[in-house]
UniProtKB/TrEMBL annotation:
Origin species: Jiangella rhizosphaerae
InterPro entries for the chain: 6-hairpin_glycosidase_sf (IPR008928), 6hp_glycosidase-like_sf (IPR012341)
Organism domain of life: Bacteria
Protein name: Glycogen debranching protein
Biological-process GO terms, alphabetical: carbohydrate metabolic process
Amino acid sequence: MRLIPTVEDFTSDPVVQRYDDMLNPPGLTNFLGAVQVDHDITAVRSVNFAPVSHGDTVTGALWVDGRLFRSFGEPVTIRWRPDRVDRSARLGDLLIESTTVTPPGVDGVVVDVAVTNTSGVERMVRLGLSVASTVTQAGPWRVPEPPSEPNTLAPVPGRAALLGRATATAAVSVQGLDADGARVRDRSLEVDVSLAPGERYRFGYVHVVGTDADGALAAYDAVVADVPGQVAAARTLWDDTLRAAFTPGNDQFSGHVPTLETSNDALRRLYWWGVLGVIWFRRDSPASHLGRVYDTLMPRYWQTTTFIWDFSLSSMIHALLDPVPMRRQIEHWIALDIHRHFGTEWQTGGPAGYWYSVNDYAMIRLVRDYVRWNGEPGFLDVELTAHDGPAKAVAQHVADWATAWEGFRTSHALADYGGIDNLLECVSSYVHEVASLNAANVWCMRAAADIAALRDEGGLADDLRKKADALVPHVGELYVEGQGFWHARQPDGRLLPVRHCYDFTTVGMTIAADLPERRREEMVEFFVRELQTPSWMRALSPYDDDAAFSVRPDHQWNGAYPAWPADAARSLIELGRPDVAAAWLPGLARTANQGPPGQAHFVEEAAEPLNGGAVKSPPQFPYLIDWSCSSAGAWSALVVEGFFGVRPDVDGSLTVTSRLDSVDPGARLRNLRVGGRLVDVSAEGVTASA
């Protein structure tokens, strides 16, 4: 039983696609920037390494014998793993294969290409790559797609390369081949090859970006000198990173995650999936205003932006794996107005986007998880200045966030959380007084009360708990009796029934113990009946009146955002049905077959599953879904907090309420870091401590 994964453990299932199928091509990162492969054997797009951006420009498209490869209509097989993307296709008697990597420490990408003559006769072939360059240094990047600008292209003396220069900034790109005899044309690179029967020919395409020509050319020269060596180095980088993530006292992260011993392959796969999906977004860019940060989406949209909501959904993994940048990020957000943006653009540290209503709940989750997993109650006493007042203790900020909902009340007892853009963006009826965030307010006040009690502020703690208890029945007013779902109350008092998973997950994870038993049963029945699918789930029931409003699959009937199934399983556990969650795991694990979780996956009715796994949704309009999303850590939390039932508290206490009987009674977590000590956890509770 391997306890620490390698890149091999994350190798995706092969995806076969033809030109412009609705496929989301995989991405790559070396923790400096990101790249996405394109619908081709060699092409790449979104080559963006802050502060230099290409936007979403496609470059490196393959030509064979003077004809664009895509125009032949031949299918391409794509396989991803953390360090590389392998692509292959047959074109007549030619087998064409490529391996794409982002080399360690390089602002760029390489594609190692091999062409094999499978015929019984000698074969002449002309191979070419189109070159496009749109680099810029424009910033900050506060829109979904990174910026770009017109470039000029010119040959580089002494190299089989083209230099792209921005017209308005100092940004440059260098794109070239390592092939002997390669020729440079105005917008392409090409080489003629004579292949004997069965002969295999390889060449490398190198693409680097930079802020000045000399630096970019030096980086290009270093990489082009040994393209196969760069491929090997990418594997070493990722294997070393994965090993470090699971190793106490490693030299890459300020913490680590526990290893999992289990005979349940689905449990292991989903746990590893969550850890990988957070590591994937690590950014050690020198362009960052905040040092190490964690992005939210990649490789196409909102690069250099960290969303508060998504970060909080991976809160446990951030707290365990890398608490130092987590704390720095929390402190930075405290200094901004969290009621005016959804996150920060890390090249400047400035705010990005509009207000997300979840922010108060998200910030309390982040502070609480940082404190309780790291044994850092002293952080609660640190005085930090917010945007609108004098410095005060973090604990006081938590109390402010916990009661901020009172300022959002109108004529009713519950908070009104605004319009569509403040909530789920693509569900028009999920607006104003929603059950999810009002239930979260109950949880927030209780969490703030625990913190107040820890600081000997008994009066404040009592007041917060009384307010929380008083709010519970008002949340209950939104329930649709006998149906298992909830209303959204409008400003005029109308109650709109909304069959959305966010009510199911958040209510279940925050106030399950406050619900009558029959109501808990009805919620589970609703989930199984209308939301759950074999390998994924619907965010919105197809029976909901709003199901025709949008086809964006992160929150609609045709799919779900990647944290929703994990949190739905957590909700099932809290509602008393860990058996339902456990039975679902094998199907969910099949969906971990395409790299880290996508921003959304389609349910089975919306798109043919990939080897039984819910397929990632595409980036094209009208879906607009990125290939991966940082909320993946919710899957690891499902294992540790859900099935193992590990619950550290801010006062340093630790309880374990195991639900392992439903998945693997013999499972064990090793070297779980709780409150500054390492513990082993099994179904019997804490079994060892160091």
